[in-house]
Amino acid sequence: MVVLNLAKGAVRRFALVILVLGLVCAEDPYRFFDWTVSYGDIYPLGVKQRGILINGLFPGPNIYAVTNDNLIINVKNNLPEPFLLSWSGLQNRKNSYQDGVSGTTCAIPPGKNYTYKLQAKDQIGSFYYFPSTAFHKAAGGFGAIKILSRPRIPVPFPPPAADYSILIGDWYKTDHEKLKSILDNGRRLTSPDGILINGRGSNAVFTIEQGKTIRLRVSNVGLQNSLNFRIQGHTMKLIEVEGIHTIQTTYDSLDIHVGQSYSVLVTGNKAPQDYYIAVSTRFSEKAMTATAILKYKNSARKVSGPIPAGPNPGIDWSLNQARSIRNNGTASGPRPNPQGSYPYWNIPISRTITLESSAAQVGGKQRYAINSISYKPADTPLKLADYYKIPGVFRVGSMPDNPTRKPMTLDTAVLGADYRAFIEIIFQNHEDIIQSYHINGYYFRIVGMDKGVWSKNSRKQYNMVDAVSRYTTQVYPKSWTAALVALDNVGMWNVRSEFWARQYLGQQFYMRVFTNSNSTRDEYLIPPNALKSNVPAIFILGDSTADVGTNNFLPHSGNRANFPYNGIDFPQSIPTGRFSNGLNSADFLGANFASGGSGILDITGQSNVSITKPGKGQSPSDYLNKNHKNVIPLGEQIRQFSSVRRKLIAIKGRKAAMKYISESLYFLSIGSNDIFGYFHSQSSIPKSEFLSSLIFAYQKHLKSLLNLGAKKFGIISVPPIGCCPSQRAFNETGGGCLEELNQHSEDFHVMLGALLNNLSSECKDMKYSLGNAFEMTINIIKNPTPFNFTEVKAPCCGDGESFCIPHAKLCPNRHEYLFWDLFHPTETASELAAVTLFSGPPSFVYPINFAQLAEV
């Protein structure tokens, strides 16, 4: 009997199923986007290149929204490698899961899709999106985001006649994968080859009507260069910086540093002809300029005259301009109240953090760092590791508050910070290049910047009246920039250099803004699609840890759980046959053949059978009375899979079916019942001989699966079964774990690891992950607090000697218990196990985790 988890008649794709609802305000409108990401030919600088297209477009489609709109963006990845989009400037309030960077979100596998659920909560202004994975940003995939004010909220300027988004940035003619390879080999990139304006090196056109005013939203989406933006014969009135209305100052040109966005008004008060829009590099060794056209309606003359010159090359002009940009305190923001109503000048600073960049060789390769820590990406998104309390992925505090000036080291750097703290961040730049820093999830007030080294006396020059807030700030060469930040957004947030090669080689870290509160008022629940995997199906074989009701269909089976209180937390509180209060680990996976009470040996779990020393040429399975099935042993489960395989071939054809089977994952969780049976049978077979026969039988089963076309195996070994509540009763010294039984589990794990290593050497196509259930469980038992468990010895249902049956003693706080009954984990523990297997470190799942296994 094949039982499909949470679905009928079909094999589900692998996706972690968490029964939660996304939290967005029901009254706010929804906007839906359906995007396909692919490679295509582009010619931005006049030569053919491979670019990243979204719905066939380069740059990608614009996003138009209104404050508080819910944005549902389904992204299909047709690239041959994983891909993510991030949303520069969108705060993703209470929802860093959707931030689209490697520390928060699983990358979208090739051929798969991911649906982002964003909300423009209390935001207006000009932003953009871009690809955050690998070095994809150098291939395109970026586009503009425009968030308009709600109709009832006044804006401090008349409606413009037109509203244009302009994406500027430096660009390489070299393919992005070659650029990535240069960086991976520890070398620096040369200067970019040119500048793009909306994906073109020249000839982009923006139309204006004489006497009318238009709005230009200009974002620097480039890789490293600060750019100056100007229009021949015209001035620009600055009205908004990254979602903040500014005092309306008029400029001839604007320095827009990489990652920044500005919004200006331009009035058509000149003769009706064409005029240059010029964009040129600033503070760079290689001077580059690109042009576009401001075209008057009914223009009588083509563009003429010299391209307008940029400002002085030194930093003084740019520094003074940056200081002149001020917050418009009387204007409404996304809400009716004025932007100046937040009294930041009265809030005590609780902490000062100084961030200092550096460049060095580590192991003979170029790296970049902040406070001497060069960021090393983890295999598991940090936010997911934090949520599921997966140890070994990162350490809070690995990013120090101040420069250490020690030799550069690599680490998965995370800065710990308290929710609702008000902090001061000093960006100190001792290098000869201009820097640009971004903080995801946050605006920060730029209260000061100057040449030299920051000191406490520097606070005397802070702007404590109308400092502008933004999400990206420049730091001039040999200079500092000071920012004040109210930490009002719980989550894991990326702090990075916008100089993309430096970011890629380590100049970034994550800031963990934390609260002990579990309220959705402070942080939304993890989205149901947080974990993704690139396998067509997962087939599950095993015992009661994975059984979802198979034994219900065995008329003589006594190993059932189809009665209360089992299933009390399952939808509609249905006792489905799972040995759990709700879901078990298999429910987070796929198609299920598991049978409670079964084992590797055919004899395990059958009635009236004991293990004795077999005769010559016999195995313990030869003693099975095949007419009296109490459970479905592993061998029979494999025969059931073989039947499914035949049906797949009939439906899909042999070639397609075998591809499906070879790319699928085979999850096996079995062995505990074999060891239980042996240990308590007082068998005359020595332990070593029994375990060897068990491993031999396991090998035969795995080879059977290999012969059927299976290639990828996710195998979980036996947990410390001597710590089950049922076994603690056998410990005469006071209810501790039965260590002799635990030793059987440990020995089995070692032998199983050796078996898998040998098999994978024999079968070159075989790939595997081995979950160390012993270490995973012991880690919780020894230190339950970080995992929010308060009881790791007693069962939630029943007590240490009685089973979980109707009217048994039932704990009210089931999510705080490790064990559901005498043998099985709670739903909470099962979910933690599934996530650890999926994305845990080598100490718990080896040599690769399930997510990595899915990608090979």
TrEMBL record:
Is the Signal keyword given for this protein? yes
User: Where is the Plastocyanin-like domain positioned along the sequence?
Assistant: 37-150, 163-299, 380-516
Q: What is the top-level taxon of the source organism?
A: Eukaryota
Gene Ontology MF terms: copper ion binding; hydrolase activity, acting on ester bonds; oxidoreductase activity
For this UniProt record, give its keywords in alphabetical order, as a comma-separated list: Glycoprotein, Signal
Keyword Nucleus listed? The answer is: no
Signal peptide bounds: 1-26
What protein family is recorded?
Answer: Belongs to the multicopper oxidase family.
UniProt name for this protein: Uncharacterized protein
Give the organism's phylogenetic lineage. Eukaryota, Viridiplantae, Streptophyta, Embryophyta, Tracheophyta
